[in-house]
Specification:
The chain is α/β, with parallel strands linked by helices and 218 residues long. It contains seven helices and twelve strands. It has a domain of 138 residues: Glucose Oxidase, domain 1 (3-Layer(bba) Sandwich), CATH 3.50.30. 39% of the residues lie in helices and 21% in strands.
């Protein structure tokens, strides 16, 4: 029985690695085109550097007001490749994340951090090239006294994030996919990417988008 459980867990891990490798090929725009207007996208949580991209499984964290004790514990527990997704209290004024935590996350092999709240040290984090997304900046230090929750369901603006969901984020926005959605998302987005590739080739050959898309003038 234990062997069967270990085998199932290994298979799930292999599936997830394959999904992430495929999803890394796509932008949030391509996913949005493929999944349509019913797919929720969060655009209010922005990358500190527009070149930052994230694709990986969510490790969810809920903090209390102006306190990031739980984020430090999550950073201690998270595994390489994980995306820390942090929900903050809407009235928080202190930064829940900064340079030192980014250094630690990068050293531990984390994929990136999404903070639904405030961050500090944006220039230093850009220099580290560790992907961080946030709503705003504040130089104020958070306390480390009150524990929130880990591995819980979060509402981050327009998107709902459960532990283990696949988070994709870039300068266009953030999308969260459940394991059940990933297969369809990859299939549909591959078709969008192929179509885009064809259009780009046609543009390079001298045609205009008006011609390629067979648009009609008034």
């Amino acid at each position: 029985m234990a062997q069967e459980k270990a085998s199932d867990t290994s298979a799930m891990g292999e599936d997830r690695r394959r999904w992430i490798a495929e999803l890394r090929k796509f932008s949030v725009c391509q996913l949005a085109d493929a999944l349509g207007p019913s797919c929720p996208i969060e655009t209010g949580v922005r990358p500190i550097d527009t070149r930052f991209r994230i694709c990986g499984p969510a490790f969810t964290v809920q903090c209390l007001t102006d306190d990031n004790l739980t984020v430090h514990h999550a950073l201690h527990l998270a595994q390489p490749g994980d995306v820390l997704v942090v929900g903050g209290s809407p009235d928080s004024k202190a930064a829940l994340w900064g340079e030192l935590m980014s250094m630690c996350a990068r050293a531990r092999g984390l994929e990136g951090t999404v903070i639904d709240g405030t961050v500090r040290d944006p220039v230093e984090i850009q220099d580290l090239k560790y992907p961080v997304f946030c709503r705003e900046f504040s130089p104020r230090r958070a306390s480390k006294d009150v524990y929130g929750r880990i591995h819980s369901r979060l509402q981050i603006g327009n998107i709902c994030v459960n532990p283990g969901d696949i988070v994709l984020a870039d300068a266009n926005g953030i999308i969260c996919l459940t394991p059940e959605q990933v297969g369809t998302a990859i299939e549909r987005t591959s078709e969008v990417a192929q179509r885009e590739g064809y259009i780009k080739d046609q543009i390079r050959s001298g045609r205009t988008t008006f011609e390629i898309l067979e648009l009609k003038s008034p």
